[in-house]
Amino acid sequence: MLVPEKSTDAQSVAENVRSLMREIPHPLTIIVAQDTITGSPPAGLLVSSFNTVTLYPTPYVSFNLKLPSSTYDAIKASRAFTASAVADAQLANDFLMDKKAEGYMETMRSNVYDQRGGMLKPGRGAMWWMRCRWAEEKSQPVGDHVIVVGEVLGAAYYTSSLSEKARASDKPLIYSDGKYRNAGPPVAE
User: Fold this and answer.
1) CB 32 within 8 A of CB 42
2) pLDDT value at 99 more than 60
3) What is the pLDDT of residues 43-83, one digit of tens each?
4) How many helices (H) and strands (E) does the chain have?
5) 86 forms bridges with which residues in the sheet?
6) What integer pLDDT is reported at residue 79 of this predicted model?
């Protein structure tokens, strides 16, 4: 097997990787955590790196965060987070805006976040949720990011009364080539 030599221009390699990976569709997931001990407002952000690590014997999920991160600080403090699959572009955009903007956290808390449940409110553009315990011992810093791993404690659709047919028409958003998209029909059975 031919092993290419490592480029001496790390910047061009990084840009090439970014360009190549933008063509691969990634699921959009909102991560929210809140330090309820200090009473801090919830912290949340949109990630495109959410994935399952394993299902058995215990389900684990992972995602990447750039440091520093107020969401990661809230995850460390609360030792938990909720992941929600995004089905609505406006909801995705809400979690991209500058979270330091005047009144943003207050607006988020009242409009889309349910403090009692520790997750987004039903009917706000998310399809399903996974409540997770932060697996500190499995999480790993890498460069200026951290790979966050969580043990899944519970998972369900936000609206359990939806029929399978209704769920099938409401697909999660994906991100590819710099844009939000929906997955198309299967290309093969």
Assistant:
1) yes
2) no
3) 888 999 999 999 999 999 999 999 999 899 999 999 999 99
4) 5, 13
5) 126
6) 95
Token pair listed for 74: 């809230």
126 touches 84 (CB < 8 A): yes
The C-alpha atoms of residue 177 and residue 19 are separated, in whole angstroms, by 9
Phi, psi (rounded to 5 degrees) for 138: -105, -15
Residue 55 has a CB neighbour count (10 Å cut-off) of 10
Cα-to-chain-centroid distance, residue 95: 10
CB of 46 within 8 A of CB of 32? no
Give CA–CA dist 1/56, Å, rounded.
34
Reported as a single tens digit per residue, the pLDDT across 11-47 is: 788 888 888 888 888 999 999 998 877 877 788 889 9
The closest of 110, 114, 133 to 122, measured between CA atoms, is 114
- Closest to 175 (Cα-Cα) out of 66, 95, 72: 95
Longest dimension (CA), the chain: 56
**For 67, which DSSP code?**
S
Q: Are 95 and 30 in contact (CB under 8 A)?
A: yes
Q: Cα torsion at 182, 184, 185, 186 (round to 10°)? A: -110
Of 27, 103, 109, the C-alpha closest to 74 is 109
- Considering only 3-7, 83-87, 101-105, 120-124, which range has the smallest mean pLDDT? 101-105
Quickly tell me which residue has 């929210």 as its tokens: 32
